[in-house]
Amino acid sequence: MFNPTESSVKKMLPAPLRSSQMPLAALFIGEHPCQEIGTFMEAALIVQCLFDNQITGEEEVGAYFSHVYVDTDIALASGREIWGYARKNADISLTLKKNRVEASVVRNGHSLMKARCLLDEEGAWIDSGPNINFKVIPNASGETHDIAEVTAAYLTIDVHDGRSGDVEIEITSGPEDDFSAVEIDTIMLAQYFDCDFVVPPAKVVGELKL
Question: Are the C-beta atoms of residues 141 and 166 closer than 8 Å to each other?
């Protein structure tokens, strides 16, 4: 996890999302042994945000997935079509040796994300609210959109083991992947979890004006 600069987090959050009181973001890299679609790797840049839930009429805190990568076609398609995760294909690696973790994301030969962690303390799960995505499906005419909505998925999570420690992060733009808006103010910590979680059907909590 890290604190982006205030100007950076505003660039990373498209309307109608807004920055929380303390700018907060995270680089996520993990392995998912999914029962429905098989095991796949996923990586994401996640930004804490505020959004107006049109179902409840309340302002809520959520985790917006600004950049998302997976390494199987079925994970890419299901994530995009159901929830609106803006997934792309990439080569993703994650290795744990004793208390050291190394992770990387490479897309079309270009290194986009790297993380090196030393886990020497217990880690506690931090509830960051629902996963927030923009589900956008253009009309066949190309002139408008059949779907343009803000989705929220409220995950249920069962943590078996958690560790935390220091981390080094590298985030670099590639020819097809723009991270120029990301400006890191302070790096907070790394967290590693062995957990089970369920991603439920999403709720449509807002509309997009495109």
Answer: no
- The Cβ of residue 115 has, within 10 Å, a number of other Cβ atoms equal to 20
Please list the residues that pair with 194 across neighbouring strands: 161
Q: What is the pTM of this model?
A: 0.94
Segment holding 82, helix H or strand E: none
How far is the C-alpha of 201 from the C-alpha of 199, rounded, in Å? 7
- How many other CB atoms are there within 10 angstroms of residue 41's CB atom? 20
Task: Report d(CA 91, CA 106) in Å as an integer.
Answer: 5
pLDDT band at 21 (very low <50, low <70, confident <90, very high): confident
Domain count along the chain: 1
- List the structure tokens of 156: 């249920």
- According to the model, what pLDDT value does residue 210 have? 84
Q: Residue 38: which domain range?
A: 2-207
Q: At 11, which CATH number?
A: 2.40.400.10
**Cα separation, 105 vs 29, whole angstroms:** 8
